[in-house]
Amino acid sequence: MSASGGTKAIVAALAANLAIAVAKFVAFLFSGSSSMLAESVHSLADSGNQGLLLLGGKKAKRQATPEHPFGYGRERYIYAFLVSIVLFSLGGMFALYEGYEKIKHPHEITDWWWPVGVLVFAIIAESFSFRTAIKESNQLRGKLSWKEFVRRAKAPELPVVLLEDLGALIGLILALFGVGLAILTGNGVWDGIGTLCIGILLVLIALVLAAETKSLLLGESAGLEDVRKIEAALVDGDTVTGVIHMRTLHLGPEELLVAAKIAVQHDDSASEVAAAIDAAESRIRDAVPIARVIYLEPDIYQASKAAAPSSVPEPPAAPAP
């Protein structure tokens, strides 16, 4: 669901940004507004970002190889991180430079109806794109707040598109504000101030995206709810009496690695333990379908072996007496 929803939101954002980028650049040519130039580069950078996200999704589908035995799921994280760099360098830094130049060398905006008309069109188009991203995200975020969804989502595409579209809408409002004041006052400095604000906004969004995708690249564990489901699925109360310690790691947005040391009875036979491990793996996959790579190590429970921290801050469940 996250992959298909993310793709739909990306395509909607790509179509909107390409149309808006062309319209903004035409408005810049007729009016000379630096806000329009900064916004056209912003939309062009966003279009490139969506292209990178689509490319990352395609590359992530490649089959595992001997050199990459766990597959290529993290390609999606890599390309999402590149998006933050592109947004920072092409969008934010260019807007900051253009705003500085406009304030230093202001000039009056001519043919004001071009930038105003394009900005109104762009706000409408971006609103439709943002609406699509919100609709697709609502299918995944459940009861999470928007802040929690952006921070906890393991699939990077929807949070990236959400932040890009939100930044684009705020940037358009800032551009309209700067252009409007420049037209009303006849002072082009306002246009430069609007451009500077757009640059600051883009840099802040890029930093947030970089921080979140960096965490995914380093490797994040499963969510707290999934960890609890896995721990509950491991214990059958008969052969598997407890979880000594466990680690989880996202190999990609829809692929989870589970490694656990489980407590078994001291008098269980090897065949009983093997059957219990197979049954535990089946229960884990039923409880958390994205848990596709599972390694379970049986051991006799000892308090010292359970001292290692679990994948969640809570202590692991003790074996049944």
Q: β content, as a range?
A: 5-15%
Sketch the topology as an H/E string, one letter per element: HHHHHHHHEEHE
Our count of helices gives 9
Q: What is the topology, as strand order, of the major beta sheet? A: 1-2-3
Structure write-up:
With 321 residues, this protein is mainly alpha-helical. The chain is built from nine helices and three strands, in the order ααααααααββαβ. A hairpin with a 2-residue loop joins strand 1 (240-252) and strand 2 (255-264). Helix 1 (2-31) runs antiparallel to helix 2, helix 2 packs parallel to helix 7 (189-218) and helix 6 runs antiparallel to helix 7 (189-218). The chain is elongated and about 90 Å long. 46% of the residues are buried.
Describe the secondary structure blueprint for this structure.
Elements: H1 2-31, H2 34-59, H3 75-104, H4 113-141, H5 146-152, H6 157-185, H7 189-218, H8 224-234, E1 240-252, E2 255-264, H9 270-287, E3 291-300
Parallel strand pairs: 2-3
Antiparallel strand pairs: 1-2
Write out key terms for the chains shown.
3-stranded mixed beta sheet, 9 helices, elongated, 10% strand, disordered N terminus, disordered C terminus, 321 residues, mainly alpha
What is shown here, in short?
Helix content is 65%, strand content 10%.
